Amino acid sequence: MTIQAVLFDLDGTLLHTVPDLAAAVNAMLVDLGKPVLSEETVAVYVGKGAENLVNRSLTGSMTEKASPELYAQAMANWQNHYTHINGNHSVFYDGVKEGLALLKQAGFKLAVVTNKPERFTHPLLERTGIAHYFEVVVGGDTCPVKKPDPMPVQHACRLLGVEPAQTLMIGDSVNDSLAANAAGVPCWLLPYGYNEGRSVHETQCDGIVNTIEEAAQRLIGTRTSP
Ligand SMILES: O=C(O)COP(=O)(O)O
């Protein structure tokens, strides 16, 4: 079946957002009298939403949770900082704008399916000037559960009016490939983003592409080939 729609992950796929995420994490840690973290460490903590980012930054563990009191204080503080910082130092990866333009021009329906909360996703897409490419934006709090659960991917397909088998997900992590595959959506991964410290080459997916421009060229090629 031909692909008619493309779902994009945001952090680590369209935009290198760790400079902003880490700045907000470190402003929060300083306010709480805790040691700051490197951008490399924060990059490993990104992927399963803001709650996990804050808990991981407080505990230094991928799975442990801070006490409910500390977590509540830290989350409110992080949100406050990130509201002001979001988009200031985020940069496009090579080929993103070119790839989005090619796909839009070729008539693909485009959506964002991110674990970033909606209140931060919409301003970031607006500030970086790419909001107009997307018919649908599903954030980390749009559905009751986030990626790697398939629900956000299924929700995006429903809103776009496309079957999962006519849809492709493009992401940077195991959270994207697990969510997509459980929804019956094929998934291509990019090697440059945040995969919780692992290589995409060790991650089960349906293909690896170097840039979104390359992904767009491949998709357009499949469509026009006899
Ligand atoms: O907010 C996160 O943890 C990551 O968001 P993403 O789903 O766009 O990678």
Automatic annotation (TrEMBL):
SUPFAM superfamilies: HAD-like (SSF56784)
Name of the protein in its database record: Phosphoglycolate phosphatase
Active site: 9 (nucleophile)
GO molecular function: metal ion binding; phosphoglycolate phosphatase activity
Source organism per UniProt: Limnobacter thiooxidans
Gene3D superfamilies listed in its UniProt record: HAD superfamily/HAD-like, Putative phosphatase, domain 2
Cell inner membrane among keywords: no
Pathway where this protein functions: Organic acid metabolism; glycolate biosynthesis; glycolate from 2-phosphoglycolate: step 1/1
Lineage: Bacteria, Pseudomonadati, Pseudomonadota, Betaproteobacteria, Burkholderiales
Gene Ontology CC entries for this record: cytosol
Family, per entry: Belongs to the HAD-like hydrolase superfamily. CbbY/CbbZ/Gph/YieH family.
